[in-house]
Amino acid sequence: MSTSAETVRSVLRSWIACEVLSPQITKGNGWSDLACDRGGQIRNRKTDAHDGPTLWQPPQDGDPTPWPILTEGQRGGQGGTQGPESPSDLLPTVIEAGNLPDRRRRPWYSIILAAMPARESFKRLDEFFADEADEDQTSRPLSGYVVAASVTLDEWGIIVPDSLAISSFCWGFGRLSTDGTPDGLSDWLTEERGLKLQFADLLSPRGSDGQPRSLSWADLRGVSRALVTELGIPDDLQILTPCVIEMVSRDPPATDILSSFYLSDLSRVLNDIETGTATGAAASYLGLDPPTAPWDCLSDRLKLSQLLEPDLFPLGRWPGNGLHPLTLLQQAAVNAIVRDLSVNGLAAVNGPPGTGKTTLLRDVVAHVIITRAEHLAAIACPWDDLGNIDLTDFAIVVASSNNAAVENISLELPVREKALDPSIWNEGGLDYFGHTATALLNLPKDARDAQRAWGLIAARLGNADNRRHFLEKFWWDTDWGLNDWFNRIVSPDLPRPHPPGKLAQLDPPLRPPQAKQAWKKTRAEFLRALATCRRLRAELADIAKTDESLRCCETRLPGIRAEALRTQYDLKSARKALSAAQHHHAELLAEEGTLNIRLAALTTIQPSWFSRHLKTPSWRTHETAIRRLVDELGDLTQALKLARINITAAKDEEERLARSCAAIEAQLKGVEDEIVVLRHKRIEAGEDLGNSYPGPEFWSQPDDSFYRSSPWNGGRFKAARDALFMAAIRLQRAFIVAGASKLKPSLNITAKAASGNQNAPRPTARDWGVFFLLVPVVSTTFASVGRMFQDFGAGSIGWLMIDEAGQAAPHQAVGAIWRARRTVVIGDPLQIEPITSIPPRTMRLIFKSEGIDPVPWSAPRDSVQTLADRASQIQGRFPLEDGSEENDPRTTGIPCWSIADAISRCSISQTVLPMRVEWFSRQSPVRQPLVTCSAARPRSMSTPHRATRGFTKKANSSLARSRSFVTVFGIRRIFM
Question: Does this model's pTM top 0.90?
Fold first, then answer.
């Protein structure tokens, strides 16, 4: 059922309101941890001390500031290079003499204008909503402070433009205290702009000469008092200008983020909904584009077999440890993703731990890399032109709600023993900037070869610290960074002040002529591997058609044989009829001859004239006899004519049936010969594919063996797919080396910007595409997506893979999905439910203020996984038995054995099966679950009853009659 745009608008506004009340909270009970996190120190007043109460005690109006207060005569030199009217003795001692002001390290001052104590603020908020936070479902740090506002000042105490930050929580808290209702909380982003303009003006005083002047503590505390009054913070929760943090750097620090990381992206998507421009994965995720004809992949094996036809297999695959093929449902999921997300869209896959979800994602990564390699191979000379390839279409971002989840991909893909079979990285020698990737792992010197990295295939980015750590090693490091290595490719003869780093010594950069030759050779090898894969896949498709033809022939054979027997019988009967007609005709001819003889005899003996004249009795007798013979001959002539017609008809029928019999016999022989040929082909295919060949009984085998199988995923085709992956990786490296001069400028821009350089130019989509060409997979948390890809609009990232989606609240992924063309959502909503900072009653009241129910849209009951499941075209259903309760004919009791049967099916290892049951009422206008039951999966199918305890506890509630259990790629529900 489609969700209306108005409902989605209300949902987004509710999510925004909830995030308004989700603040950033400082660590610990003091401000020292905050200063440490920012790489600075508390310096609340001017003093030469480096520690002690004079530094960290809250400043008062008349206290001296840690920055010099400039007079009007001294302000003339500010804003550029140091002038004669800005004496150097006013500069703090940390500034190095002799450096130009725009190049030196200088002090910056982060002013905490106001704050609120976290514990008391949340307690007051819960009292307002008459709510109580459940520790199992709500996560809120209770120590520390909520920073209400902060601003950054330069070395002279003058505001840094656009550095003012105001907390949405404090604004929302004040609004609730004033208005007494959550209505209007979603208007924060509009209100924020007005507040920033108002208070940035107060923080930018000017002297009589019109120039900005230094701020004093009196100025700052005056702004602080005005701010808490404007925000409506109660007096007993106000903390005015608790501290200033001094940081030393070349560039001003980034503006503080005091509100939720998700607010900006939620606002962007809300704007698309209001303007009717939301499309693609975001529209599907939010229910605007529901599946048109969902089907049950666990009962409809015909459609499942169509999804597993060889034509739908990606040409390459990820050659993991052991070179094991994907199991049936894993491969079906990959095939569906590749087919359905060829341009855009959203796909959801469910699976408990240990069912190969990460393995499945690796095959999708391999598909993207190989598809991009096909485009790269179309460029003959990458050193001249990179072509018109949209490289961001092949960008892969792995995102989740926490770092631990995304590290499953980003930290495992580069490692030899975790990612590849030894035949690939050891015997095959596959290496893709492995030395640099190994340096990023920070391994001990005595690490085994298998523990080292095979390739720079993934990067853990996200927050600023992760980005900085990655880029220092990946790009700027003198030993292992690629910056110097690329420089030596682009300008091999340029004199350098330092010797080659370790990377250049172990992997000497190719000179341009060598790089061009290597590209031509690698490109030819890739094209040969690609042609081989296509040929083998076409052969398997032909074999699949052969099996269908064989089934068709074997089905037709009995009918053809029966038809041949019938035709032979009819031919025998026709020949008998012809013989009888011919015999009858001969009898008539004989009778005709007899009558002619008798007639001749009578006409020879004529009566006398007298007898004829007198018509005597003898004459009359003679005449009567002649007339009788003439009449008989006339009748006999007609009979002979009819007999000849019958003979002709019998001959025609005999000839027709003879022809039909010959044709049927030829058809029978042809089908029998075709069956022999097809069976021979099947035997040959079975010898090549082994257990991967889906034989005659394959599609009717029991579930246990069926779901563990790997149809078409073996033999020469599997080996060729592995070889194509290796060829694609080598082609990618050769392309990068050959086109280094064209790629390096984009890599420089992206590396500088991602490192946090405020003065670096913003990377364009093409710059990021080049970065993703070098590092195909980037992992991040949802919270960092908006900042890292702030210039990316709707549908600008090629692939988004959401891991552990069951642990993420629905709204957390909205911004990432909005930026993605294709989104793959994978996880298990039954392991760890999403944690929210908003208690349940507060959540309900916020959603109610927008006129909707939070049940289908909010954590902890719903997650990114459940919303993506609703958009799934491919589902699976388990039938459940139902009984009835004596007191209420509309409700049913839930027999545990039916649920246990569903659970035992879910416990099949190496299959992508979920374990969640939700009972819905058909009478409700909104699909709101009456009961949601979850349980731990049994260790074996022999003890499924252990997994039913969680269901049994909740199953005593009144439920309507249940019909189905939806799993695998889609929604796990029981409708009543």
Answer: no
